[in-house]
Amino acid sequence: MKFTHSRTLFASSVFAVIAGCTASSATSHTRMMAAHNALVTQGLAQVGAISNGNIGEGQSLRVSQTLEVGCYTFLAFGADSLRDVELSVSNPQGQVVATETVHDAQAGLRFCPTARGAFQVSARAASGGGAVALSSWRGGAETASPRAGGLGAVAAGGAGSCGEPLPLELGQTVNGDTSQAQNHLSASCANGEAPELVYRMRVPRRMQVTLASEQEYDGAIYILRQCSASNGRRNPRSQINPNNANEVACNDDDQQIRRSRIVQVLEPGDYYVVVDGFGNDSGAFTLAATAQDIPSPEELCQQAPSLTLGQAMQGDTARDVDGFHASCANHASGPDRVFRFDVAQESRVQASLETPNFDGALHIRRACAQETSEIACNDDAESTRQSRLNVVLPPGPYFVYADAYGATGGSFTLQVDAAPVAGAGVTGDSCQDAQALTVTSAASTTQGNLLAARDDVTTACGAGQDTADLVYRVDVPSRGRLKLWFSYMDESLREAGGLTTQIVRACGGTAANNSLACRALSIGDDAPLDAVLTAGTYYVVVEAARARAFGRFTLNASLEDSAAAERACRTARVLTPGRTVTGTTAGTDMFQASCAGSARSPENLYRLVLRRRQHVRLEVTSTNPSYDPAIYLRATCTDQSTERACVDDTNGTTNAVIEEDLDAGTYTVFVDGFSNGNAGPYTLRADVTAAGSGPSTSTPRPAAPTP
To answer: Fewer Cβ in 10 A, N or C end of the chain?
Structure first.
């Protein structure tokens, strides 16, 4: 690997001193003596004697020199007839590790080896010829200005690989260029073939270290605990990088692709900082390393303020340090703040964190400074700006942490609520004070929380005792189909099997005998819970599927005109195999599906009759690019649970194809649209061949009944 650099600011200042005290006709030796005097006054010590030679164009004066760990300044001065001197340093393996490229009769560079070795310094006559003097000095500042053309410590340490890392000191800014480097490493945020440079950084004590880079390309930086020339190479067959197990932190973009930033708390020791690129990108960069002392976890815990249960606490972590980590949110390696709360008796505890300006994380521990005492951790609840934990805790002190997924913190609102394990009673906790559930043909949403709800109703398909429930009242004005599903529920509810949901005629202590429909629902279920209801009042019971489970949820409900749906099913056009039909979807949405964002757009229906088991291919194509069609088929027209296949996009968003082997029977084919309000013109074609003659668009489904 070769590093090419322009003249350093330090060497340039020496040349300015020389120019001020020597005539232009001075000999190379006279200039060297002037440089000696200038460097000595700046605290540098000459290493060895001045080497003199007379070289022709293309020839070099070479000096072998044993260099210790530290920084050296090399200067070469040529006679007036030597118009361009190139100065370079080669490592013990003969690789050029530093070069000065300014076109002048004098050359200077600064080089900082990280290991003792035999190096060779070369002054080459790139243009002209004549006398040349070459010498070296040791000492002085270990870095040059990053604005001075890019030398600084970049030339240090040889190749800039795992075997020969460059030095990087805390408080230092270095410049470099990866365009001539090699590719041996990758990381979680930089898994391409871009070349990289490796730096070794020593952290003297527990500190929060900030690494910030600016690149002329789409770059990335990461920190490794271990790095070596052997384990740094990826297996060319498996493309597995063994260093990933040693990855401490990795960042690709910091608000823009030409910036990268890592803020990480590091324990004392040596680390490897890698400047890499995204994909195959490479080029010049500036890397700055800064650090600040941080309190120990024990000190932070001693300062933890107390939270009052049921009261919101507001704060800002933008200027806090990363004092604690967690099992979720990529170890929760962002700035954080810890609070204490006390539980007087065994209780349901719900902790909620709102972080409007960053991706927050929330975790709870029993012992503040012990990471292994973590009880629960949550990254995202309703969104990346919300986190929530629902746990049952015995009496005692606990610690809750307002944390972050990434390196950025900000303003937050934290609240911890508690309720008895058996519940305290809330509105809608019983049939007598059931909450009203407003339903129309369009989906309505209702927010619920089982934190303080009791177990008041026994459902037909419930888990039994100690399952918190809420009751909703539904007034049905005329015959229709009620559909219920959940668009959100807390992680604690999902892990406990979802929410048991039941539709009943009358509400009492036991709802099992009045059940019209009952099933445990979770997020992403293929079909909602539904039932056809005549005019009257009904109740919906939402119950935790497991004892002692609780949390927040969003219940969705719609009441469809079943008479209109049944009429649409009866009047569906017959679809003749081998023929292409045209149509346009318009009007209101009456049917939904398991794909295409539930397909809550207007639809057209077709009837497909099979006399024997056959392979069916259905293809719908939009004739308007703004219309995103979907296609699905059911064995029973009005029952979504009999859906046999559903496809949104096949060849782009304007085409959808179903291929299935179907038993004899009558099926309903639906041409619908993605999500809401998606309608337009289309063509539809059905082709039928022998069963087993084509692929399938879905996993095998139960055989279709013949109506």
So the answer is: C
Residue 17's pLDDT band (cuts 50, 70, 90): very low
Q: Which residue in this structure is represented by tokens 């004590």?
A: 205
For the residues of 144-170, what is the DSSP string, one character each? --TTSSS-TTTTTTTT-SSSSPEEE-T
Structure tokens at 128: 């002209």
**174 close to 252: Cβ distance less than 8 angstroms:** no
* Higher pLDDT among residues 459 and 428, named by residue: 428
pTM: 0.61
CA distance 289 to 142: 14
- C-alpha torsion sign, points 267, 271, 275, 276: negative
Over the chain, what is the mean pLDDT? Answer: 85
HSE, CB side, 13 Å, CA atoms: give it for residue 540. 29
Q: Provide the residue type at 526 as one letter.
A: D
Whether the CB-CB separation of 502 and 555 falls below 8 Å is answered with no
Return the DSSP state at 44. -
Residue 192 in tokens: 């391409």
The position carrying tokens 């020389």 is: 18
- The DSSP H or E segment spanning 13 is helix 9-21
All domains in the chain, ordered by first residue: 4-138 (2.60.120.380), 166-293 (2.60.120.380), 297-420 (2.60.120.380), 435-560 (2.60.120.380), 564-690 (2.60.120.380)
Q: Where are the beta strands (DSSP E) in 95-230?
A: 96-100, 106-111, 117-128, 130-138, 166-168, 172-177, 197-203, 207-215, 219-224
CA-nearest of 320, 361, 318, 313 to 339 is: 313
**Measured distance between the N- and C-terminal CA atoms of the chain, rounded to whole angstroms:** 76
Q: Which helix (H) or strand (E) holds 287?
A: strand 284-293
Q: Across residues 314-337, what is the average pLDDT? A: 93
Residues 6+ apart with CB under 8 A from 653: 628, 674
Amino acid symbol at 507: C
- Report how far residue 643's alpha carbon sits from residue 420's, in angstroms, rounded to the nearest whole number: 43
pLDDT band at 98 (very low <50, low <70, confident <90, very high): confident
How many whole angstroms separate alpha carbon 197 and alpha carbon 190?
13
**Is the pLDDT score of 392 beyond 60?**
yes
- The predicted pLDDT at position 536 comes to 92
User: What's the angle, vertex CA 363, arms to CA 358 and CA 366, rounded to 5?
Assistant: 155
User: β-strands 247-251, 219-224: how paired?
Assistant: antiparallel
User: Closest by alpha carbon to 406, among 597, 588, 264?
Assistant: 264
The model's pLDDT over 498-532, given as tens digits with 9 standing for 90+, comes to 999 999 988 765 544 578 899 999 987 767 898 88
Going by C-alpha positions, the residue among 662, 682, 686 that lies closest to residue 674 is 682
Reported as a single tens digit per residue, the pLDDT across 657-682 is 999 999 999 999 999 999 888 999 99
